Amino acid sequence: MTSLPLKKETEKIGKSNKRKYRLEKFSGNLFLFCALLSVISLLLIICFVFYKGAHPFLAEGYRFLDFLLGSDWVPSEDKFGILPMIIASLYATIGALIIGVPIGLLTAIFLAEIAPKSIAKIISPAVQLLAGIPSVLYGVFGLAIIVPFLQNHLGLIKGQSLVAVILVLAIMMLPTVVTVAETSIRAVPKTYREGSLALGASPIGTIFKVVVPAAKSGIMTAIVLGMGRAIGETMAVILVAGNSLIIPTSLTDSVRPLTTNIALEMGYAFGTHQEMLFATGIVLFSFILILNFTLARISSKGGN
Amino acid sequence: MRKLKDNLLLTLLWFAAFLTVAVLVTIVGYIFYKGMGLISFNFIFGDYSPSGDGGIWPMVVTTIYTIAISLIIATPVGILAAVYLQEYAKQGKLVRLIRFATESLTGIPSIIYGLFGAVFFVTTLKLGMSIISASLTLTIIVLPVIIRTTEESLKTVPRTYREGSLALGTTKLQTLYKVILPSAMPGILSGLILSMGRIIGESAAIFLTAGTVAAMPSSIFSSARTLTVHSFLVTQEAGDIELAAAIGIVLIVIILILNFSATFISKKLNKADY
Questions:
Q1: DSSP H or E segment with residue A202
Q2: Which residues in chain B have Cβ-Cβ distances shorter than 8 Å to A126?
Q3: Which InterPro entries match (chain B) (predicted)?
């Protein structure tokens, strides 16, 4: 007699356990699905952008080399060459790195190692905050201050030029470079400094010969992030680039980098013209992949 | 000789820091100086008028819409994805693939997202140039940010919490939402606030997916401009630096508030928890 209610009881427990297990299993799968969404998104992005961008070369008989090395971009005459934009993007990014990285790194070293605590406590968060300001505002500043300045002092007809782009991008990458590099320099163990100082090295010598090399991988990340911001920036660059379709021969030439070409013409482009803008996007994308890869190689080589 | 070199380097460090601070102060100072004259109640809460004396309320509303929609989707997906990576997954090929995808998404420039949004959400899914297209594009942009910040804060939850809870006979799921997620909350929240900042600052992707209509959006399926895009367009089309700077002030103040609340939340909640 007593075994009947007991059986019922165990059955009940078994049922609730089963439900629990099912819920566990279901939630596990749900979490997995959410995690896979980023893979799915990446695949969708690659498929759609590449499909659109590769179409003219696979199906319409355009030659990819003509696209890459052609120097004329006249959509109305069916001429699609993006060499001027590739060169403009390269120059602008390299120029911005040449100016922005040393200043940014030195500032980071200053904040982490030299600055009195009270000063660093104010400046570091302020710089960090500036990394979050919409990049368009840097472009607005560039157009309002840098462009007229160049126009007046270099005697240019048009202040919108490669050098204006370089300056705006260099300023824009500063907060990113400073913040990331500062964090990595601060993370260098104190014992490194103490050891170096105990061996008789000067404080400044310690910073440049011990601390900075120890923070190398973080500094590399700072440079990659800053570069990514510079090469991918679009709207701020439109405002100060001038957007002429010529291969720049001097710093004062008006230029049109890859990103701005896409943003300027997507609004009204259709058919082959639009597909060529997607192809421009592919080139930009590959560009970033190559640069990231190269820098990763350089930094890992240095590590050995 | 060594002393001379040291002093030279030290001067260089001071100079670089001074230059950085000076440039950044100049930019923010200039934007406030130039735009302050336009800031008024009517400017922020007034309806837009093409003649120029109207306000920016439609753009504020559009910005709020894009933030709300993209976070409504990206928050649960991002948090659960991070939970999977940190708490459920066994290290292996699949996890490496997911991490690789997340990292790659971080590196894609905004204009490429814009191209993707334009061909996928706008054309293929037929959502048109609209707030919803832009928001869905932004969802993908902030997803890696939310995943990463959530993962970081899950990492800070002590192992003993999990062990203690599981030892009491709870299931993995119960441990997750009763113990792990509450302790990771401050980090997750500040991650969400940072994503808001990212959405507000975004321009190129929105420019290609939401269009540029300067009017109060009637629904999330209408084309509209966010504050950042508006600031760009008034500069490019009309050269109206003053207006662009005034919008810039609104943007900077919003970013300031977001950053302070992120810091505040993580400090406050952390204290309450431990």
A1: none
A2: 21, 24
A3: MetI-like (IPR000515), MetI-like_sf (IPR035906), Phosphate_PstA (IPR005672)
